[in-house]
Design brief:
77 residues, 2 helices, 0% strand
Length: 77
């Protein structure tokens, strides 16, 4: 196994950054869930949900990339 893990470090860091972005999106959505019962507020809440969902997809992609690189490094597949 090569000792250079800079590629793995980059993938791990990208995954961690995506998770932090996701957490912030969840908090934005949660904050909007506590607003007044107005149509505009509900629309904002729904938009925040769609944004959170898109960021979740980004997290899952980054996780998959990192896991694939780990599998390649340790199990050669």
């Amino acid at each position: 196994m090569p000792n250079d893990v800079s590629h793995l470090d980059g993938l791990r860091d990208a995954y961690k950054a995506a998770v932090e972005e996701w957490i912030a999106a969840i908090r934005r959505e949660e904050a909007l869930a506590s607003v007044d019962h107005e149509v505009a507020d509900i629309d904002s809440w729904e938009a925040a949900h769609f944004a959170e969902d898109a960021i979740r997809d980004k997290v899952l992609g980054a996780k998959r990339d990192y896991e694939d690189a780990l599998r390649a490094r340790f199990f050669d597949f």
